[in-house]
Model the fold of this input.
Amino acid sequence: MKRVRAEVLSTRKLGAYHQLTVVAPEIAEKARPGQFVAVKMPDRREFLLRRHLAIHDASRRGGWAGTLEFVIEPSGPGTSWLAAARAHSFLDVIGPLGKGFALPRRLTNCLLVAEGHGAAPLYFLAQELVAAGKRVDMVVGADTMERVLKPIDAKRVSQTVAIVTTDGTLGDRGAVMEVLPAVADRVRAQVVYAAGPARTLEQVAAFCTERGLPAQVALEERMGCGFGLCYTCVVPVARKDGSGYDNLRSCVDGPVFNPARVLWDRWLGERPTMLPTPPEGLPVVRSWPG
Amino acid sequence: MSDGEAPGRSGGRRSLRTDLGGGLVLPTPVLVAAGCVGTGRELGGLVDLRRVGGLVSRTITLEPRKGSPPPRIAETPSGTVWSTGFQNPGVAVFVEVELPRLARGGAPVIVSIAGGSVDEHVRLVGALQTRPEVAAIEVNLSGPDEEMRREVLGEHVDRTGEVVGAIARMSLVPVFAKLPMAASALPDLARAAVRAGAHGVTMGAPPAALGVRTNDLRPALGGVTGWLAGPALKPLTLRAVFETSRVVPEAPILAVGGVRSASDAIEMLLAGASAVQVGTATLVDPMAPVEIARGIADYLRDKGISSPADLQARLRVPAGFRATDAP
Done:
């Protein structure tokens, strides 16, 4: 983990997204697919905390050595500020952070499932898998054409690509879950990696559990710091021995988790069950601070 | 981070050594606030802990706590609304695993504790008692009082005195009472805590807060209500520190809430604090506690002041002003 002053090399529009490239050799050298960085915002009242960006690519060799790429979907003041970053300005970046994807040792057929801008880390993963001699196939989905991230890159890096959009403007009309079973059969998937909206990941998790497919998913939970200090980005994850669960920090214990151990209902559902249990007979009057 | 020297000892700078009494001496008057030091090993990679005034642990309870449901943090103008619900492994695991890690970096460790009853507090102190790593204990009094079935233990003068007294009688290290800064009975609470044996006061526990999302009509936090943090708190903290220091001038005050620059910290000292704790600013910039301390040293040198203690409570208040006269 390094803290660097990174120069913005370029920003460019990518459909509905923005691609941001920064020079950060110390981070690029160590970055693994699935990891992220924490970028400091300027001192203004509307944003205070760092913004956390999944690493979309890290170039270690060649003309672009030492650069990091991110895909930004402008959705609030912070991401809009980042999307408008000018070339040659500087960003305060801490990274690489978190646990990335683990590459399979024996199994070879890897199916990557991406939806929306969550696809960003999977392109980095795909390159690493191919470099490790694995077969990569992809399912890429989004609402509409502008939100399908880099379909041409997907074709370049993988054996087959299934593209689906909700409105049918690119690829087949539908959702990733509608094509996933057929694609998994066709490519004889042995391992599944997924990133995207939590609800989609929950369905991917159920599918993988049912088929007995090993899987890893990159989760997004709102973070305070990004490096393990504040305990705000927790996700409930079952213990390996089944003796209960722990609220794990997605910044240091994730953001990549085994979806079979994520307690999706507790994480995403109506959550009163997670409130601390009071001693027998006493009312809970307010959630505990801390 | 090039020079490994503590700021107090580096050339040309004033000593920032801060003696809070009771054997508690900090290398600088800038600590990391409770809930912002992780489990003790995360901060070490980002900052030289020998240059940090002290670390306040996350709040520890007797039994392990899972904490609040996510999301646990949301940004708000000049601040955050957050609640972790005291997620912690319980005092037994804390003492075994986290405490040695917190102490390893060399910064003094203040352990934050919270309980729902007098008995729980006493047992917490009992579990920490034998550990040499514990420089002081901070009692977070903003949690519910389960014994008396009240929302906030530290809003009641009688109970604050009772709980703090039980802890102080037992503790071998200085005890700081972290009082709710928004409590209307603040002067009485501070007096009760100090009279009961608290060595000092941490000012303070933040006001409760709510965030609202308009897109899906939900509260911003999974636990619905949380606590305000960040620069938005600064004037509230200043006033609470100021009032407290006038009623218990003999007790050191640790100011927490809204400190993110050296200027903020100096203002807290002028208002009556002996040291400051930095929370949200540490989450954004792990070097903040060191940079704030450096800024204080620069200010002292420029003004020809010899130590941070000489700034303390030097706010020039009109003669005849009494805090209780204020609106």
